[in-house]
Amino acid sequence: MIIDCLALAKKLNDYNLQAVKELNQRGIAPKLCEILATSNAGVLSYAETKKRQAAELGILYESFIFDHDSSIDTVLEKIRQLNRDENVHGIVIGLPVFAHLDSDLLLNEIAQYKDIDGLGSKNTSAIFANHEQSAIAPATPAAALYILESLSAISGKKVCILGRGRTVGRPLLEMLINRNATVTVCHSKTAAIDIEMAIAQSDIVMTAIGMAGTVKSEWFKAGQIVIDCGISFVDGKTSGDVNSAELSDLGVFVTPVPKGVGAVTNAMIFANLIKAVDLQ
């Protein structure tokens, strides 16, 4: 069964729209600012998507563009200015940035409750300590769990995560443990036979590899839930880590790519912004 992620994204955006209206009634105009120090076409295109969606929700959006010659100090100073600006409620950084810029330094400069991507050390530490309510979680893991929790309780379930990256796999591990799941993590150094075994023993599989064709359909069985957070491009088309059509035919509940986790992530960014306003 293909999971209808567009319906879930709409539900979340309906919440966002109502929350923005309520903030406006309190005299608050939520504003998101984005640092763009990159020439990556995908990042710049995604920034335009955020700008458009912000407008649809009644959220203010402003981007700050830095060219390749910009120094780390110049970008840091802009972040500090935005931290001090009470009319700015959220800051995101379009990743990856230019190679000479330290992304960790930039992310950690963002004030905790303006860190809408939840990738700074203060938010990641809070999640590690099971203090998610007082933190901002990374949008993609939060979206993946939003989808999962619409289908099934997580507590007590066996979950296999494929991938250990900073933006998805690692925070997913902590967030699943916070929800009392039993978690196995597989990565690039895990043997294929061990990945197959881990999948076979799991109720839920969450993938974040970014390489189409790596995860074989025959490793899955009917009744499992697969949340595919991976994105890659094959013959000019967007693909996930798994073949969602094949898995659906096997009786697996699976998110599609595109129009899957990414759609919910887009909505989750603005849900994070609304949470940030409340935390501030």
UniProtKB/TrEMBL annotation:
GO terms for biological process: L-histidine biosynthetic process; methionine biosynthetic process; purine nucleotide biosynthetic process; tetrahydrofolate interconversion. Keywords: Amino-acid biosynthesis, Histidine biosynthesis, Hydrolase, Methionine biosynthesis, Multifunctional enzyme, NADP, One-carbon metabolism, Oxidoreductase, Purine biosynthesis. Its EC number is 1.5.1.5, 3.5.4.9. InterPro entries: Aminoacid_DH-like_N_sf (IPR046346), NAD(P)-bd_dom_sf (IPR036291), THF_DH/CycHdrlase (IPR000672), THF_DH/CycHdrlase_cat_dom (IPR020630), THF_DH/CycHdrlase_NAD-bd_dom (IPR020631). Pathway: One-carbon metabolism; tetrahydrofolate interconversion. NADP(+) binds at G163, R164, G165, I231. It catalyses: (6R)-5,10-methenyltetrahydrofolate + H2O = (6R)-10-formyltetrahydrofolate + H(+); (6R)-5,10-methylene-5,6,7,8-tetrahydrofolate + NADP(+) = (6R)-5,10-methenyltetrahydrofolate + NADPH. Residues 138-278 form the Tetrahydrofolate dehydrogenase/cyclohydrolase NAD(P)-binding domain. Residues 3-117 form the Tetrahydrofolate dehydrogenase/cyclohydrolase catalytic domain. One of its GO terms (cellular component) is cytosol. One of its GO terms (molecular function) is methylenetetrahydrofolate dehydrogenase (NADP+) activity. Catalyzes the oxidation of 5,10-methylenetetrahydrofolate to 5,10-methenyltetrahydrofolate and then the hydrolysis of 5,10-methenyltetrahydrofolate to 10-formyltetrahydrofolate. Homodimer. Belongs to the tetrahydrofolate dehydrogenase/cyclohydrolase family. This is Bifunctional protein FolD. It comes from Iodobacter fluviatilis.
